[in-house]
Amino acid sequence: MHAMDRLAAVVALQSAVAEVPAGDLDRLLQLVADHSLAAFPRARGAVVATTADGRLHAHAVAGSSATVAGAAIDESGSLTGRAMAERTTLLSRDTASDPRIDRAIATAADMASAVAAPLVAGDRVVGAVTLSSDLVNAFGRADADQLCLFAQALGGVLRHWSDSARNAELLADTRRALAVVEESEARFRATFDGSPLGMAVIRADAEQGWPVVRVNPAMSTLFGHPATTLLGMSLDGLIGVPASSDVPSSGLYDLVVHHRPVTLERLFRRADGRQVWTTWRVVPMTNGPDDELHLLAQITDVTARRRAEQRARRQARLLDLIPEPVIVRSLDGTIRFWNDGAVATYGFRAQDAIGRRTHDLLHTEFVGVTLPELEDRLASAGSWRGQLEHRHADGRTLRMTSQHVLDSHGDGEPVILEINVDVTERVEAERALAASEAKFRSQFRHSTVGQLIRRVDGTIEDVNPALARMLGYRAEELVGASVDLLLAPAIAELRRATLTRLLNGEDDATTTEGVLVRKDGSLLDVEANMSVARGPDGSVQQVIGIYQDITARKIAEDTLHHRALHDSLTGLANRALLGERLSRALGEAPGSGRTVGLLFLDLDGFKAVNDGFGHDTGDALLVEVARRLDGVVRAGDTVARLGGDEFVVLCPDLEAPEQLHIVAQRALDRVAAPYVVGGACITTVSASIGMSLPGHATDPHQALADADRAMYQVKKSGKNRIGMLAEPAPAPGGAGQRLSA
């Protein structure tokens, strides 16, 4: 069978198939049987077989094979079944001595020799075509090769049959090709040029680099080069650097001489720079025993499929970022996806879990529900939430809060997404249970963790409902916007540095604390986990962000910080905070031209209150003293309690020393006023106040010690007074200090 005759037969079949109504499979397969028989003159019969329930059925027959119409045999017991299982063309030169032949079928169809090839549509074997003859050795290896290529073309016809738009396009191309065939003696050229698939003829000359000697228009369109540029180009130059899984072109000749068709998957760059993934199906082509060997290549653009695989990998990456177990399983329970969280929680590796049934692997015990009730709930409502018990790989029992979501809207069969949270140690805690329930949603859309996908240029591609809610937006308001809309200006530089490390490959993922801006302008403290998704060429395609609201933690940290610097009884600054502010005031005073002043107060008569009325009354009185002192100081002054009944007032920016005495007098008057606490009226409490003006001193401890000594001098000289050291304390070994009162 000449190549141009085979192509003409394919074109004729394409034209006929275009007229077959959608759903009329019987008519379609009968056309395949009739055209297969017509395309191979040595054949006397043709059978198109399909599979059902593990058996082969003679779906369509032609010629001498009409006697086996409707017959059914086991898949493993025939040449046709083996061809389908091995996805290769099989030849039987003498059926009488071939154990692969079903004897009953061979006798009924008068079959002395046969050749069978699988029909592959996409990545699925949909059937097989078998040619037979009543003569031994009617078919040779060349016939097997031609039937292989013919069957591959038939697979493409079957793949596109249900697509009416594609049928129309193929029919138009076919009719144009047929018109050329009818008008020209160059039938091969016409059918070759009219094919909607990219096609090339390559001379099997390794020394010349396997040069391209003929291409069709579809090939030029696919590669973006005119035919004149492609002709003469070497095979390696045409298809570029092979992917890691490809067979290098240097091995083609060895495959061809052994009559094994080759399928390659290659990434190449079009003339316009766009990268395209293609599948190459290559078979030997000769017109006779003396002709020079050529290769006929059919090229299909599979970029869309590769991109779909990339999206699937990206989604799997996103699921792996979720720390909880995420399991995707079929309706029968067979595990199809098992994320890193499941590995960490259950102790089973992904390769050990995938393919097993979930409940068998994990020995599921249902809490408050039966399996039929759970399945009924999934079927009626599309989701179920509750508690389960699972068994760890080491035998431990885990209590899980689980959410199942039925996904029946994808392109494939329905699946169940199961998200589990280990609540073994906190199953009794209602708050923990409520917090964990929000985590049980399907992947990106059902996660309670805020998630965002953005391009490298900062454009937001998608946000999940959780993040939209966190920020007060609807998800559609954010898609297409710049991520800068959500970032507080204060973290812009940190964001750029983090992104640079990710893009440069220094980090695969980073975790930082940051601040997001809500729609109303308020700020939200978050912990951000950032990672990148890379394309087939290794370049960064997207940045994936997962955001946790850490507002409560920040509030707790602020509370602890406040407690560390404030007196627990009165709420005033404590010794640590006083020391910090005093050090800062002393450091800033020389440059400001202002004076720092200190008041050291010790209550007079407080011990008698404690002894006479009790410590509760004493504590209440201390709180009231703190309130009164806080009311007499100026804005910017600090009131601190050092412990017991000792208080300090820091005035950091006095314009004149006299201002310190004014504050001290107010404090003295307010503290000495009567108190009504614990039902008692107390009039015996006053304060002894020591003043200190450190001047240009820089030691906060010394400044406080001076005020302390001044206060004790007041105590000794009569109490309820204000006193001040006229001179600062001398250095060790020095002499003299006096009190001005």
CATH superfamily of the largest domain: Reverse transcriptase/Diguanylate cyclase domain
Q: What's the gyration radius in Å? A: 43 Å
In total, the number of strands is: 30
Strand order of the largest sheet: 3-2-1-6-5-4
Number of domains: 5
Domain GGDEF: 594-727
Pfam families: GAF_2, GGDEF, PAS_4, PAS_9
Organism: Jatrophihabitans endophyticus
Protein name: PAS domain S-box-containing protein/diguanylate cyclase (GGDEF) domain-containing protein
Structure commentary:
The chain folds into 5 domains: 3-172, Beta-Lactamase, CATH 3.30.450.40; 197-301, PAS domain (Beta-Lactamase, 2-Layer Sandwich); 308-445, 2-Layer Sandwich (Beta-Lactamase); 449-554, 2-Layer Sandwich (Beta-Lactamase), CATH 3.30.450.20; 566-740, Alpha-Beta Plaits, CATH 3.30.70.270. By secondary structure, it is of the alpha+beta class. It has 27 helices and 30 strands. The longest helix has 21 residues, at 141-161. Mean pLDDT is 81; it is low at 241-248, 432-438 and 729-741. Helix 1 crosses helix 6 (164-183), helix 6 (164-183) runs antiparallel to helix 7 (187-194) and helix 25 (615-632) packs antiparallel against helix 26 (657-672). It has a 6-stranded antiparallel beta sheet with strand order 3-2-1-6-5-4, sandwiched between helices. Strand 7 and strand 8 (212-215) form a beta hairpin. The N and C termini lie far apart (126 Å). Helices cover 39% and strands 28% of the residues. Residues 311-365, 436-506 form the PAS domain. This is PAS domain S-box-containing protein/diguanylate cyclase (GGDEF) domain-containing protein. It holds the Pfam family GAF_2. Residues 594-727 form the GGDEF domain. It comes from Jatrophihabitans endophyticus.
